[in-house]
Structures
1.
Amino acid sequence: MDGACEFSRVVKEHFGMYPFAEITDFAKLAFQNEFGAGHLIRDEQKALEYLKAEMDALEGDGAHLYEYIGNNQGRIYLAAICAGKISLERFGSIFLESAKYVRGSEAGFLQKIEILADLAKAGELPFAPEDFWEFVEKWKCAGRPLFRHSEAYRQHYRPAYRVVNWEFCLEMENNGF
């Protein structure tokens, strides 16, 4: 399956799982699909400290332990730690190892933005294409900051995860995850 078809399929699956997702949530998915998690790691020790702090404040039902986001990327939810499926230390090492992979390009990301616009135009996403392009223009004018999940997404789904290489999710699944 080529990258464009795969991303389109992933977006549709995520809309089915997360019907309260908004434009910024889909843009975040596109960004994570293209670039993985490397943008989050500036200091490995601080990244691990932040992970531990997030674990202490974790709220969620643990319904999702991991999910595929395309381009050999997955989200491992912190609930996997709470469920005893993986240790905090192993979780942290998987995240740090995944972040070392340099991947993605602006051209690839912009292709995914076009796919989101096409899906909106086809009525397969919960926003109008013109609203999507307005969002993209505001994002560009603001200096292209990192995307955050929308308030509606955070309230409904309480996302607490890290983006990792999908091979780590498969490894855990093969070990009884």
2.
Amino acid sequence: MVQIHKNFTDEAVRDLMKKYTYGGIKAVHVQDILGIRRRRFFKLLKEYRNNPDNFSIQYHRKPVKKIDVEIENNILKELKIEKEMIENKNIPIRFYNYSYLKDQLSKQYKQNVSLPTIIDRAKKNDFYIPRKDKKNAHTHEVLTNYAGELIQHDSSHHLFAPYSNKKWYLITSLDDFSRYLLYAILLERETSWAHIIALQSVFMRFGIPLKYYVDCHSIFRFVRGRDSVWQEHRKITDDVVPQWRQVLNDCNVDVTFALSPQAKGKIERPYQWLQDRLVRTCVRENIKDIEPAEEILRQEFDRYNNHQVHSTTGEIPAIRLKKAIKDGKSLFREFSIKPPYETIKDIFCIREERTVGSYRRISFNNIEIPIVGASINDKVEMRMVPNEKTGITEVRLWHGNNLIGNTKLKNSDLNTVHF
């Protein structure tokens, strides 16, 4: 745009407008003299006619809007808290999270501050750590065309509450297409049963997906050499089907494995976002126990799914998932129990096979269970559902396609810790 205020005085332009008004000069000649286009000319003409005596072409820069002193002080206060965490070697935080600070200002002080403003104050007050660009950094991208086409499932063992001095496990399941977190939970120990409960939660609420994407953790995959014991040294990778995988087989769900950390890095890990926010909030609120940490997780879970615009999709995950289902862009199938099984306890369970002995009994962890409905040397499958709250495991006994028994045993007697 031609800056006519640098080449002409107010009086000169005012005189040209006056001559045009009285027919002394044509518009095209005024445009040529000022070096402007027709649209700009008529805009100036309108301004002249509205106020001929005070007409001016001088540019007036708008004053920079200053933020309230209280807001300024709160920004610096929150940045100082972040800096103290970063400088504390016992807290696993190494960078500032300005988006988190923006949310804190809104939550704690009811003050809405733009992200650029916070970053500007951080740079001006020594609260800024530039991040080095990672070589060969993985690009986060949506790999699917439908909701339910691929579920990213993972766990992270991390010091989420530094003041507790205990590491906990964060188990998450995420729909790749919508980036909606289908499941998230904090646990003190990781077991196959915990991951089976995650499957049950997803399948019962959203339906059965097409495929899962996981790493090669022993809970998900048997790997020769790593997981073999001496009596199984001849078994090759995938000869043994882990408990978690058996549930997926019953539901006709496929699994894809990340064969290296680099391959896993190509898939977005939602716990990284949750992990950072969990740690920061647990430090600020002096959290030491897992119960209040779980409440923080639930709050962040809701924020991520229902309020946060995802950086990859540009949409809020809950809205994107709902839209996909409405438009028929979903591969989730309705969960149903296939015969001969009778209840979800027959699907989401721990399975063990035993041979009926000469006294028509099977043995598991030195517990003798009488069998009716199967002959000596027959194979009986135990489908077990442990309940950590009651300390009781329900054991459903199957012989072929027939349920031949149902008993309850104490978790401690079954030594279900290995589940």
3.
Amino acid sequence: MFDFLESAKVRSLEKGLEEARQLLQQASESFEARYSRLEGVLRGMSEGVLAVDAAGRVSYLNPRLEELFDLKAGQALGRPQMEVLRDAGVNALLGEALKGRQPAPRDLLVLRPSERTFMVQATPLGPVEKPAGAVAVFLDVTQERRLQAMRSEFVANVSHELKTPLTAIRASLETLADGALEDPGVNRSFLQKALRHTERLTALIDDLLVLSGIEDRQRRGQVEAQGRSALAEAYAAAASLVEGRAALRKVVVQAAFPSGLPEAAMNLESLTRVLTNLLDNAVKYSPEGGLVKVEAEALGAAGLRVQVQDQGPGIAPADQQRLFERFYRPDKARSRELGGTGLGLSIVKHLVESVGGQVGLSSQVGQGSTFWLILPQADAAEEPPL
């Protein structure tokens, strides 16, 4: 009887142990599944994630953070965070989180491995009274902040560029209203000054509208300037628009196009605008009696190359880097004097790149400048994809 009872107890104990083993196995499998899902989410995030323990040592970093900071998890785990990222701003944020605080997200400029701006959010892990660690999420906002700065600069530049001619027009009209209108010796000069600044204001607004239209279509994903056009036809239209200025400055414009030149994959209106802006710049900055050369060549599958060469003062290397930016002018006073809006080259760049082309320049101070374009050929652009 005693042996039977003991055997029953053993079987009951075995059953209980088996049930406990199954429960532990299920719990373990459930934990592993949750961990696997969490790890998959962290690995797939576009943001960088860094976790530290209570002592500030790195306990986890996802692949995106490795990529952003050029790190290796195996070399970073267990090391103090400050030794790994070496950034005082990140260290301060995590320090606040490790004290149980919830710091507000903030932008941090990180200089290593390259200069970038991150929006960083740090959060304590575990009870806020005594956190077991902290986690920081890094969102790369470098491009967004750069665009915001460009927009702010653009608004400031537009305001300044509009204010300058308006101020001159107002001053001229006020002078005429105060009595100069009755003075035949000066009234014409003030009217001509007002007219000149009105023309500049009109040109500026026209260029702003063109540039705004191009950028709006790009934001909508619309292809700019679809079509095809002959370079010779676009050049003829552009040359007719600048011939008056060229005649006043006694600048000769010469074009040399080889026969059989393929058509460009850009419509006639856009290509004419591109060439007009380049020719106008070349004529304006050429010395009186100077020569502007326009040349073109077919590059086969690489496209169609067009270049406009002037005999102007040339452009310093530091200015060449920014010359295609909106409103950037190496010599602002001279550009305004010559009637430039500061938007022509930016329009050229937007139009050319919108059809998959390239734009650039080569220049040396005192030796003139050569602006070049590479446009896709119409035939090559229209071939069906393989």
4.
Amino acid sequence: MQFKVKRSRLGGEIFIPASKSHTIRAIAIASMAEGESILNHPLVSADALSCVDAGREMGATIRTGKEYREQSDLLRIKVRNLDDKDFIIEGIGGKPALSCQSIHVGNSGTTLRIFTALAALGEQKIIFDGDNSIRQRPMMPLLSALERLGAKIESANGKCPISIQGPISGGKTTVQGISSQFLTALLMACPLAENDSEITVENLNEQPYVEITLDWLKMQGIEFEHKGLDWFRIKGRQRYKAFHRAIPGDFSTATFAITAAAITGAEILIRGLDFSDSQGDKVIFSHLEKMGVVIRHTGNGVLVRGGVLNGMNIDMNATPDALPALAVAGCFAKGQTRLLNVPQARLKECDRIAAMTNELKKMGADITELPDGIIINQSRLKAADVHGWDDHRIVMALTLAGLSIDGETVVDTAEAAGVTYPGFRDDFIALGSRIEEINN
């Protein structure tokens, strides 16, 4: 599928969909919990549905609000205001009861890492695999850490397909933090191990994502000690409890709305965000404000208005998902923008540093690739046919660029936007975007 994009005049309001990070952690914990959990307003996207499938394969019963209403005469007594897209999850009490020999995680790296660790709690051998992108994502740091805790691993190259067999029993382990998901996976599995666990963390990237995980553990009453984010001791033989929680809006997704306002000069009201949440990408609002975006918090949401942008240096280590959008913003900013200290951006759905450098060059950008980032000088972009790299954030970022320049920009692999933001095109059309969807 392609997006054909033309210069647009934007304005209005947008409600940001639920956080992918929170949704996947919520599904995983509810799947392992004792009893019935309710997730209100979760993200319903390709990645989230891959996580639902993984939870089901682990033995959990997961239904949507619509399915629950059709199957239960007790709905009006047990649950009020249940939306059709909410998730109701009957967990497995910390004991994997795998219903298959393999789990396919699609394009979801977070699901892969978390459920690999959770599957290691059981005695059954299970194979994990995914799409072509997943088969390029590193797994060895997590696999090595799980081996030290007692798991048996089989993998040809430290990547999918992999097989894992537990049970992990606890003990001491070390994990490299090139992806925060490796640590998150261990933190979520170790409370359910038979014995206490001690985790030493080396070179941790993306720290705010670990803070999200710790918030979930605290909400669950999980007992652990830690020294910063470098060392953890987690008590074994704990249990997750059923819960009822609404999933907060996604700041990573909101990055595209505020960037659109920034580069088009539009005024957009962004709704559905909780700035008290631990999501690291909320700092993008601060970054863009320093670049020249006007931001005003109101009772209805955050009002953002674009204007004259100025380049700046930004340390992106905590916020790698924002790199594609900020690379586009840098093209419209006076002077030079440097996106730095984010080598892990090369290990996402694609090598996002290389992808954004290559595609923005096609559009005329003055851009230089660094080992750990990108340097962008103010550029006069032109419409072009560009490759979305089957990466949702690349597709959406290049679409934003097309909204701000003359001519017709064509972005391929546009279906990838549905991995985290199925409503991207519709929401931006409601703001005034001229985005035509073309099926190949």
